[in-house]
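Give me structure tokens for this 164-residue protein.
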Amino acid sequence: MGARILGACGLTRCIAAPDRISFAAIITYGFACVAIMIAAAVSGFTVPDLMKHMVGDVGDAAHQWQIVIDGIFQINQAFARIYSVAASIAIILWSVSTLRNGGLGRGVAIYGCVVSPTIILGIGIGRLRLDVHGMAVVMLGQVVWFILVGSQLCSRQARGVSLQ
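Here you go.
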């Protein structure tokens, strides 16, 4: 997670402009990263501990444990939605900043302005469920954008180094 934030800070620094759109993007992305860390903590630490208690309890309490685990799952889903939408908004903001002020290729910015609203719309209308496959779709769309941006920033830096 730290590498993602550092990369996002570097991106923001490279495309920063007086309109502060890229700054708004990094703040939004920071909130997204906090949300996904909470979702991961709930899935990785809370649910397994609850299941250990559930196994050791009597069979009569199984229904109560199922209600608790379903509730935890809903909390996890809420944080996954917050991450997916907030990270998509951050990509839109970075892309809009690029379209307005330059700094990255137009194609990458347009990709960000198409893929991210599609993700948000899919989540909003309920067609994109954030199970394993749904999160894979979200991550694929976002990772492609980040890889394209990273490669452009690296090639830009390489050109700058060769000019000196």
